[in-house]
Amino acid sequence: xxxxxxxxxxxxxxxxxxLVELRDERLGSYGVRLLLKRDxxxxxxxxxxxxxKLKYNVAxxxxxxxxxxxxxxxAYSNHLRATAAAGRRFGFGTVGVVRGxxxxxxxxxxxxxxxxxxxxxxxxxxxxxxxxxxxxxADLRExxxxxxxxxxxxxxxxxxxxxxxxxxxxxxxxxxxxxxxxTGATLAGIASALAPRRRAIGFAVLKxxxxxxxxxxxxxxxxxxxxxxxxxxxxxxHFGGYAKRKPELDTFIADxxxxxxxxxxxxxxxxxxxxxxxxxxxxxxAQGTTAVAVLS
Length: 296
Known about the structure:
- The protein is of the alpha/beta class.
- The protein has helices at 4-11, 25-28, 49-63, 78-90, 108-115, 125-128, 134-144, 157-163, 185-192, 212-224, 247-260, 269-281; strands at residues 19-22, 33-38, 68-73, 93-99, 119-123, 148-149, 176-181, 199-204, 231-234, 290-295.
């Protein structure tokens, strides 16, 4: 039984998320129309792709009789926050396995997860790279008991199916859709559901993001049994790596907020938007193109 609809009703999530046109004089001379898909407004506890990734996983965990969710993430992981909130709202215990050593005081993201009832555990970086291997998972089950496993970023076939529902919400004609890419699941889902002649671009937010090409293909195949060729990964706007930033990114964020009243998340959204503006300015989008940028 699919319980995800009931979960959405319980949360009063805002779906479809709003689609608004971004009027920015910097785009005018390039003949590009830019629309923002405001997935960041879906729900304060589950913004953007977080609810899309979690909803079918929460339903599966409940149907399989699990009482605990365990997942992985870095110290600034929005996924850890969202999983902790999901556990509190839907009656699951939650465990967040954090990459690296514990640091006190906790940053805002980890403090929020803890306050939602999440038990925080830590793996050194060498072990963390092996987090999906049977011996590491066996140790975690011995420590915490049975759990429903959510991969890092919540990225699995069920998450891809949730993300694949996004394009159908867009009733305005468009040519290309852009999103930030951390694990590849959002891009995999969006691209799998695009109409012919539309394409998707994922802007990698971590250094060395070329591996995401294989991840997107893998996730598409696991979710739908096919791979699409209507997408690409742009690896040039990571600003030093995951959760890293440079002054020019901060300047872009402040200017965007002044112009449009939208404060972009610097870990994901801002890198994608900065990269998109740069690519438009370089003439890489034909005049008359309508682009959608997903804020999550």
